[in-house]
Amino acid sequence: MIDDDILKAASALIAKCSAKGEMIATAESCTGGLITGSLTGVDGSSSVVDCGFVTYSNEAKHDLIGVSNDLLSNYGAVSEQVARAMCEGALERAPNASIAVSVTGIAGPGGGSATKPVGLVHFGCAGHERQTITYHEVFAGDRHAVRKATVLKAFELISDMLDQ
């Protein structure tokens, strides 16, 4: 179900979080739970994964993790501002997490525009007493490739946050 290279990266991240005593929460849109699912596919993940929010709709982003309707209407769901609000909202609502990552993007094949093309993904990563990181990238390939690249980049951002 989950590609071996994703499970290998998830395993390394689980080990790093475990060694540092950190717990993760996720706020996922375009990946639909793949980040959390990949992490929980690894033995020992229960000591590291607190919870995951799958917030595919704008209503879920607002109701579950507190993204303001103003941000959603002014910038759109696929934006740096919303990615930041998603990770910060997830961190605030996760009972045990010390780090939260968020992803919001356009995995395709449709849904893109001139200003927000297919493959565009915005990321956020927040941690207690750490500066929130935002990042965006336009990934190439089909829907599977975009979502896979998104999961791997989310793992990288969490790892970077652990080093802060």
Largest sheet: 5 strands, mixed
Query: How much of the polypeptide forms β-strand, as a percent range?
Result: 15-25%
**End-to-end span in angstroms?**
33 Å
CATH topology: Maf protein
Number of helices: 6
Quick one: overall form? globular
Highest CATH level, the class = Alpha Beta
What structural class results from the helix and strand content?
A: alpha/beta
Query: Which spans of ≥5 residues are poorly predicted at pLDDT below 50?
Result: none
What would you say the CATH architecture is?
Alpha-Beta Complex
Order of helices and strands: HEHEHHHEEEH
Radius of gyration from the alpha-carbon trace, in angstroms:
14 Å
Total beta-strand segments: 5
What is the helix fraction of residues, given as a range?
40-55%
Count of domains: 1
Q: How would you state the average pLDDT, rounded?
A: 97
CATH superfamily label: CinA-like
Q: Strand sequence of the main sheet, in spatial order?
A: 2-1-3-4-5
Domain CinA C-terminal: 9-161
InterPro entries: CinA-like_C, CinA_C
Protein name: Damage-inducible protein CinA
What's this entry about, in short?
The chain has 164 residues and is an alpha/beta fold. The protein has helices spanning 4-20, 34-39, 58-65, 69-75, 80-93, 143-162, and strands spanning 24-28, 49-54, 99-105, 120-127, 133-138. The protein has six helices and five strands; from the N terminus they run H-E-H-E-H-H-H-E-E-E-H.
